[in-house]
């Protein structure tokens, strides 16, 4: 039982509950979800090696009975790797809870926002703000702690005009083009127009997800002002310094140097 006890002691130091029953170490990470460590008993040369199979189980737990539907998800060979497994699943559970909070919008800081889940990226949600902008949240359960990246995306004045032009061209397309092909062409055109006209204001990557909610509240109120303030950056290369082994202080003081570089 030494391996289990070492893991349990390490978990206890982090304030994480665990219990040992019938040769299995149970670590609850959500009301209906547990991690189970089941020790592997080797023979011969492997007899002294510490190892355990790792299962994730949906549990219906009562005082009299425990029924588990467990799935093998990994194997650990040290206390450190066991701690990493627990941390990973706890982070994922935390992210799912935050995701649900964003989609349900019950937090008063989200009262002006209606988030939708991206159909292809389950940890990405977005909400319309301002006149024609989008607030995007990308949650990441990987790493030591879960994080959320928030960005404000607005589109230039040319967006509607270019999109209308693309729509008209699609309507006038050859009759031989099928409806599904037209839809695919339209989605591609929308993406291209968006790339040409959008401006992105990065609000930051937050490991304090409560602070992220504060940032979302501010963003929902500032959207209209940010739309007016965000302008396309100059496409020229001036102000962008590329690594040059021959660059010296004299070049840095010479405006013509950067003009020549941007023309190349």
């Amino acid at each position: 039982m030494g391996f289990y006890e070492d893991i349990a002691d390490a978990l206890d130091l982090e304030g994480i509950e665990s219990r040992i029953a019938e040769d299995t170490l149970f670590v609850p990470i959500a009301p209906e979800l547990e991690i189970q460590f089941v020790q592997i008993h080797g023979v011969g040369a492997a007899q002294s090696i510490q190892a355990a199979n790792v299962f994730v189980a949906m549990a219906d737990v009562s005082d009299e009975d425990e029924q588990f539907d467990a799935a093998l998800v990994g194997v650990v060979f040290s206390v450190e790797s066991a701690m990493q497994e627990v941390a990973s699943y706890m982070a994922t559970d935390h992210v799912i809870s935050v995701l649900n909070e964003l989609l349900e919008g019950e937090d008063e800081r989200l009262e002006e926002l209606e988030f939708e889940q991206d159909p292809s990226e389950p940890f990405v949600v977005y909400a319309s703000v301002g006149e024609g902008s989008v607030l995007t949240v990308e949650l990441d359960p990987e790493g030591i702690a879960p994080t959320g990246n928030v960005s404000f995306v607005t589109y230039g004045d040319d967006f509607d005009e270019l999109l209308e032009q693309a729509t008209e061209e699609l309507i006038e397309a050859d009759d031989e083009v099928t409806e599904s092909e037209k839809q695919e062409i339209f989605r591609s055109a929308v993406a291209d127009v968006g790339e040409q006209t959008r401006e992105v204001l990065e609000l930051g990557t937050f490991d304090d997800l409560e602070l992220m909610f504060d940032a979302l509240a501010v963003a929902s109120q500032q959207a209209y002002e940010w739309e007016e303030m965000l302008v396309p950056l100059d496409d020229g290369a001036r102000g962008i310094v590329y690594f040059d082994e021959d660059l010296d202080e004299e070049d840095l003081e010479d405006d013509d140097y950067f003009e020549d570089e941007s023309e190349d």
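Residues 22 and 38 are 10 Å apart (CA to CA). The two ends are 69 Å apart (CA to CA).
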